Amino acid sequence: MLSAFIGGFFLILGIVVRVIIGSPTAHIHIPSPTQPSISIIGPRPNQHVSRLVNVTGTVRNLHGHVVQLFVESVQPDGTSSGSLYPFGKPCPVNRHHIWTCTGVIVGSTRAYRVQFFIWVAVVTGAQKAADINKGRSPGYLTIVGPDGLPPHVGGSAAVDKLLVARCPKDQACYSG
User: With helix as H, strand as E and coil as C, how does the chain read?
Assistant: First the structure.
């Protein structure tokens, strides 16, 4: 009787230890979430665009985050200005993972033949609210991230950038 009691005790102890420290039969694997990824598909790189343009792309693994678009002027030497203007609202995403921002303003009314970067990023609701508040005064955000990218979640796949140029005056250009 005593040996049955001791054997039962060790059997229960073994099960408890396997559950606590894990074992192939007692371990439940929870996969890590897949990082968001985003890309711009229209307009095309280096395309001449009008002042108002529709920008579209694809996104995966949003996980409740939103798609935010920014426009940045490019220096005459082709380098980044570091000043981003946030588009006023998140870009809606359809069930096929396609996002579209309509009526994006690219530059001032006189910014003919000027180059701009169009940035898109997957952001949290808190990042979105902070971006819009900062963007209202003085009107631009400064890229301050250690990675040189606008605010975003996840890795660098959660951000994409496209170089476009405004049309010459009185020329019809892509508007999406």
Answer: CHHHHHHHHHHHHHHHHHHHHCCCCCCCCCCCCCCCEEEEEECCCCCEECCEEEEEEEEECCCCCEEEEEEEEECCCCCEEEEEEECCCCECECCCCEEEEEEEECCCCCCCCCEEEEEEEEECHHHHHHHHHHHHCCCCEECCCCCCCCCCCCCHHHEEEEEEEECCCCCCCECC
Which domains are present in the chain? 37-166 (2.60.40.10)
Q: What is the amino acid identity at position 110?
A: R
Q: What is the distance between the alpha carbons of residues 168 and 27, in angstroms, rounded to a whole number?
A: 64
pTM for this predicted structure: 0.73
On whether the CB atoms of residues 62 and 125 are closer than 8 A, the answer is no
pLDDT (mean) for 102-115: 90
Give me the pLDDT at residue 11, please.
36
Q: Is the peptide bond between 31 and the residue preceding it cis, with omega within 30 degrees of 0?
A: no
d(CA 142, CA 175) in angstroms, rounded, equals 27
Taking a C-beta distance cutoff of 8 angstroms, is the pair 74, 107 a contact?
no
- Quote the pLDDT of residue 56: 97
Among 114, 124, 123, 36, which Cα is nearest to 71's? 114
